[in-house]
Write a structure and sequence with these properties.
4-stranded antiparallel β-sheet; 11 helices
């Protein structure tokens, strides 16, 4: 199985590079329009239609081929989304970027040589981490993506995923990760700092928007800086946590079990036809309250954390399994009875008493794959989920 890892290298683009990125965006939109007008579904047919027109832009042919490749992927995703629902906007490239195949660029010493036009290049100095990847003979270079601030190099290797001797089940929540291993070991990572960062930023942004309501230009400039800083802080924390999870699982020879949370934000953003109490018209209105649930879950990073775990685990050869989350939090892991929610952390089982909701869910997730363990009243599952009784210390 092929594993891919991307490494970013920051650089300061010149005017020529910015012009190149702007041209690539235009080339990409031209390819998308041609594909939609002529109902083209293959990269080969799209190349025949647009190649000679794009070569008139004067840039290296690798940029033409890169634009065609990206446009083909965008058109494929557009057709797939259109089959699922009718109201889909036609795609259009908005960001400055360019993509090159692995034959277009070259490593020269500690620099990356990237073509602009035939026999015209620019160089980007590589940092220590990239050079470490380049010295690894098991890795091969993939494509390169250019943006207005960084170059993204991809490395590819054949990963051998080993069959695990046990599993680590993780229940990823808004403020914590709770898990349990096949040997009964408990896992807990605190995500409350990320929650605080998102909440504080929201309050700060709302106050700033009120103050600068008449100046959208200032809003855009300042808010983009704040959100970029927030994303860097949050992603650094998520990378650190996911790396530690995968490292510990590999050391124990365990696989990782995660809940399949795909579509969780679609569910919380679901709308229904309601009568607007202010104008009396029928409109599509969000079912869930912004204050109580919608805003919090839209800011949560559960899916991003799971993505980090998946690709890091594949790179290290650790098996990852995704299971259906239905019933993991609402069913008792000891007797299987339905739970009555008490608060965010605890629930009551009519037979087993008060249980820890997150650890109970982790045990249910583990039970989907680890059938060798017995989760009866006389086993450690009963001890794990009753944290409130002082039987478990983390």
């Amino acid at each position: 199985m092929l594993a891919v890892k991307a490494v970013e290298v920051s650089y300061k683009p010149s005017e020529d590079i910015l012009k190149l990125l702007e041209t690539f965006k235009g080339m990409l939109n031209y390819c998308i329009r041609a594909g939609l007008e002529k109902n083209i579904t293959s990269r080969f047919r799209l190349t025949k239609v647009v190649y000679h027109d794009l070569m008139k832009c004067g840039y290296h042919s690798w940029y033409v081929l890169g634009a065609i490749e990206v446009a083909t992927a965008i058109l494929k995703n557009y057709r797939k989304a259109k089959r699922r629902r009718k109201n889909v906007k036609q795609p259009r490239a908005r960001r400055l970027m360019a993509k090159l195949g692995n034959q277009a660029y070259k490593i020269v010493g500690d620099q990356l040589r990237i073509p602009i036009k035939p026999r015209e290049y620019f160089y980007v100095k590589l940092h220590k981490r990239v050079l470490e990847f380049l010295s690894d003979s098991t890795l091969r270079l993939g494509s390169v993506t250019l943006t207005a601030s960084k170059v993204v190099l991809t490395f590819v290797k054949v990963a051998e995923v080993t069959e695990p001797r046990g599993y680590v089940a993780l229940d990823v929540n808004e403020k914590s990760i709770d898990g349990i291993a096949s040997n009964g070991g408990l896992i807990r990572y605190d995500l409350s700092k990320i929650y605080e960062i998102n909440t504080n930023l929201f309050e700060r942004v709302r106050k700033f928007q009120r103050k600068t309501a008449n100046d959208r230009r200032v809003q855009k400039k300042v808010l983009s800086k704040w959100y970029r800083k927030r994303n860097n802080r949050v992603e650094a924390m998520l990378h650190k946590i996911s790396k530690e999870i995968v490292k510990n699982a590999k050391a124990e020879g365990y696989g990782i079990i995660l809940e399949n949370l795909k579509g969780i934000k679609n569910a919380v953003n679901r709308k229904a036809w309601r009568i607007n109490r202010f104008n009396g018209k029928a409109q599509r209105v969000s079912i869930h309250s912004k204050k109580k649930l919608k805003r919090r879950l839209n800011q949560a990073c559960m899916r991003k954390l799971q993505h980090f775990i998946r690709y890091k685990a594949l790179w290290e050869g650790v098996k990852v399994i995704e299971v259906n989350p239905k019933g993991t939090s609402s069913r008792c892991s000891i007797c299987g009875s339905s739970l009555e929610y008490l608060n965010v952390h605890y629930a009551r089982c009519p037979k087993c008493g008060v249980l820890d909701r997150q650890l109970n869910a982790a045990v249910n997730i583990l039970k989907t794959q680890d059938e060798l363990l017995r989760f009866g009243r006389d086993r450690w599952a009963n001890v794990v989920v009753k944290r409130n009784e002082g039987m478990v210390k983390l």
